[in-house]
Amino acid sequence: MVAMTTALRPHAVGEMLATPRFRGYARAAIGVVILVAIVLHAGGEPFARGLASVSIAAVGAALVLAAVSTAAAAWRWRMLAGGLGLTLSWPQAVSGYYRSQFLNTVLPGGVVGDVHRAVAHGRSVNQVGQASRAVVAERSAGQVVQLVLAAVVLVSLGMSAYAPAVGIVALVVAVMCAVGFVAAAASTRVRVAVRRELAALRTAFASGSTVVKVIAASLIVVAGHVATFVVACLAVGVDAPTERLVALALIAVLAASIPLNIGGWGPREGAAAWAFTAGGLGAATGIAASTAFGVLAMIAVTPGAVVVAASALRRRRDSQAVQSRMVAS
Fold it and tell me: 110 pLDDT exceeds 60?
């Protein structure tokens, strides 16, 4: 019995480590470690400066920019879901995207909202697998466009000092792809799964017009995030040319997409500190601007909280209605 228990323990630990919940908390823990390291190194003053700089005008601009970005992201999601044969109305796409952004902001890991969005849509159309593929395709397309845009803008502006940041991200992506190819080559099961998912992606991006529209939507999304970061920079009082602010914003926003954060915080502040230092503006200024951006981004997705509350209220009413019918019968 002891031997059996001992043998089962590594298996149980392996299963625990493989659960989505554990991975989410692990990513959040890494974000906390990064954030604590930044606070210990730079102190709390830059964060306090960023918080104090948030104004009503900045909040208003962030809400408008978030509305535009969310609408564009919902458009991208609808196109790719439609390519996979799924129905997704505009109200459902916009409200679902606001909800996912809010959940990504307040829950550990930064991806819980996207998982919920995929499952909720999948259940509504009885195709959770296809709905999950649509969300993965939508987010992946956005990340690729963001990475390429950042590289193009930095090169076109001649800002070679920032090139290593994009290069590091590209290297990480390349390593992840290489690991995926090695895993596929070593396992027949993985090869079959990869072929299946690639076939689904080809279906989602079947037409050239869809690709163009997805790129256009992604550019609007990135532009909205970058503009919000520029608003944060102006609120903090950063004195720099517009093109430099755009370059700095692209790096910070790109770092914010790394799923090793807590509500978006962590890598973003570290990248901003490094980028602002490379640009001669100082790490403290970068942290302050990133802090202001983080606060504005959190406020900008609060409509998602309304969607979450409305969904909870609707579920409660449905549950009460079911209970009432059971009592009546």
Answer: yes
